[in-house]
Design a protein that fits this description.
Blueprint (H helix, E strand, L loop, with lengths): L1 E6 L8 H11 L9 H15 L5 E7 L2 E11 L14 H4 L3 E9 L8 H11 L5 E6 L4 H8 L3 E6 L7 E7 L7
Parallel strand pairs: 4-5
Antiparallel strand pairs: 1-2, 2-3, 3-4, 5-7, 6-7
Length: about 180
């Protein structure tokens, strides 16, 4: 049976092994084609991500098997994505934002509503005015973001990957994303 669980920094570690396994499956696909080194880096970085202020994660499990996850944390007012080619408008830059860091659904479970529900649950409890994320412009997810109200405000180029579109989406003032 499909079940969704919310975790914070203090309760998320029980999902880390399964989350890294899901990451390996999802990011081995095009356009990412990540291998063991990138998966190891993801696995090693999870504990540090979970202790960031405002960390929240939603996982989807089907009979104990992790089939999807989404998580992020609060990006403080005055901060923005590293290596961005431009700042966002001041009304976005100057307030706390929720940065979505990962949103993954197992390839065999896509188009079943799991991804949509993960993102809904992740954003629905946030108090920040905006959500932001970085998306590979060649990914299927990028097109989904555009259809669901995310808009591009900048681009970031990191040394280890392709330029990423930096997107934002307003969140309702009531915290019901």
């Amino acid at each position: 049976m499909l079940a969704y669980t919310t975790s914070t920094g203090t309760t998320a570690d029980r999902f880390f092994a399964a989350l890294a396994d899901l990451y390996a499956v999802v990011y081995s696909e095009p356009p990412y084609r990540e291998g063991p080194d990138q998966v190891a880096g993801f696995r090693e970085g999870l504990p540090d991500e979970a202790i960031r202020p405002g960390f929240s994660m939603i996982v989807a499990e089907d009979d104990g098997l992790l089939v999807g996850a989404a998580y992020g944390w609060t990006m403080p007012a005055g901060t923005w994505w590293s290596r961005s080619d431009q700042d966002p408008p001041s009304d976005i830059r100057d307030v706390d934002k929720f940065a979505v860091l990962e949103w993954m659904t197992h390839p065999g479970r896509r188009e079943s509503g799991i991804g949509t529900e993960l993102m809904h649950q992740l954003l629905s409890q946030r108090t920040e005015r905006y959500a932001t994320l970085a998306a590979n412009p060649a990914s299927i997810a990028r097109r989904i973001y555009q259809r669901t109200g995310w808009r591009q405000v900048a681009t970031s180029t990191l040394p280890w990957g392709p330029p990423m579109d930096l997107l934002v989406r307003p969140l309702p003032a009531t915290g019901e994303g």
